[in-house]
């Protein structure tokens, strides 16, 4: 018989408070939370003295590259890195090969995850200009949502037919998550820089090519359409201060029809970092100015921005070492997402309670995920122990990503994730993984 687990003396962070207490885990579930739970013989006890216990990070945007792009990453490798970083649930994007634009192809990804994923998982169905009928078959209780690329997509996933777009927005009650960058603006800007520099455009011009204007034009148009049709819209990876003013903070998250996300890299880096980091911080949308970075923090703290995510999107070092036009955008982030945010907690930028709200509580609320995202009795024990006084320096030899590099290489973080529980199972324990147990497909209360 599997032993129940008792976590003693933890600094429990949940629903805007931090308190000292014990947590009892039994059969995947949080059975009891109390200031003092007696340790009995049939309990495995973990003494968490001095450590934070938080609900696992629910990352609402990752690219784990499987199927079809497995030279970059797989669901197995990246979910392993994710649990080492305290991410217990991820929602993965449809732009794999083939793209998840039919129900059959979507279910193929769930089959791979059931076999290989260390973390809990869901996937998004990808909308195109011609798959509305398939899109409408998506089961809201079993699938995270719909993903639309309104800019910067691979394959045929750019939805640029305005009539179709309006039809999608009008036809589904599911959350529509969007990547917003205006393609015409980007094409025009790219052409101007090609005329000036040829193939070898200096990377510092990336945020000028993929400009504030390109982002704002696209996101404001999507919001206008959502208001017109009553669609439930979620805008991914805001990168400009200007866009944050399109969102409201005067009503609770549960009542919002239009929500937004910010990613770790847009909170951490600015255009000053291109010189040192080069293509390793080339993302779409681009990392922009210091003023944009500060504006994103401000909007996150005052609740115009609802969630933090990673947009984890690995490429090989060989791919990344190409010149500007050929180097792909995206980078790996899941292994150090929480510790990066905890660095900002240490600096006094954000409180740990607010960080947990944005990484765990709010994604669960926003996507209506059943029984996850909180440390509550009766909820799944997706929880993470953190030693805030155990520094770590990121280097190639301690990375778990298949691509083998990180934009954080050389960075020393003050905190270390020591234990990650997924559905009550201790999947990660001070560098050691339980490879026998896999995560679960999450369900939605809709």
Automatic annotation (TrEMBL):
Cofactor(s) listed: Zn(2+)
Single GO biological process annotation from the record: purine nucleobase catabolic process
Stored InterPro entries: Amidohydro-rel (IPR006680), DHOase/Allantoinase_Hydrolase (IPR050138), Dihydroorotase_CS (IPR002195), Metal-dep_hydrolase_composite (IPR011059), Metal_Hydrolase (IPR032466)
Domain Amidohydrolase-related: 52-426
GO MF annotations in UniProt: allantoinase activity; metal ion binding
GO cellular component, one term: cytoplasm
Pfam family, one: Amidohydro_1
Protein keywords: Hydrolase, Metal-binding
Function: Catalyzes the reversible cyclization of carbamoyl aspartate to dihydroorotate.
Family per similarity comment: Belongs to the metallo-dependent hydrolases superfamily. DHOase family. Class I DHOase subfamily.
PANTHER family referenced in this protein's UniProt entry, alphabetically: ALLANTOINASE
Name listed for the protein in its UniProt record: Dihydroorotase
